[in-house]
Write a structure and sequence with these properties.
Helices cover about 0% and strands about 50% of the residues. It is mostly beta strands and about 120 residues long. Strands 2, 4, 5, 6, 9, 10 and 11 form a seven-stranded mixed beta sheet that branches. A hairpin with a 4-residue loop joins strand 9 and strand 10. It starts with a strand and ends with a strand. The mean pLDDT is about 95.
Length: about 120
């Protein structure tokens, strides 16, 4: 089982990034797929979730209207489109796969929003 995030980097405020999470070793459609983030000195925070089955999505209030989570079960990929980025979005972003019996984590990708 493996989750590999990519797409992080340095971006100016107001800019955009698209994070990708490549999944392998399990059936993506059977898992809730979640993006978390952790800023320095802060606890890990749930950012967005794509639920299995109905593919509904939910977001933390601070990113609503700016971030979009999506998945492609056929390609075993999950994405986080991040627009109108703010300095407070700076964090390590983690991809998580969760079911009733298992949870898997990626290694994280750094996103830095700074001028």
């Amino acid at each position: 089982v493996q989750l590999v995030e990519s797409g992080g980097g340095l971006v100016q405020p107001g800019g955009s990034l698209r994070l990708s999470c490549a999944a392998s070793g399990f059936t993506l459609s059977s898992f809730h797929m979640i993006w978390y983030r952790q800023a320095p000195g802060k606890e890990r925070e749930l950012v967005a979730i794509s639920t299995s089955g109905d593919d509904s999505t939910r977001y933390v209030d601070s990113v609503k209207g700016r971030f979009t989570i999506s998945r492609d079960n056929a390609k075993n990929m999950v994405y986080l489109q991040m627009n109108s980025l703010k300095p407070e979005d700076t964090a390590v972003y983690y991809c998580n796969a969760a079911s009733a019996s298992n949870t898997y984590w990626g290694q994280g990708t750094q996103v830095t929003v700074s001028s």
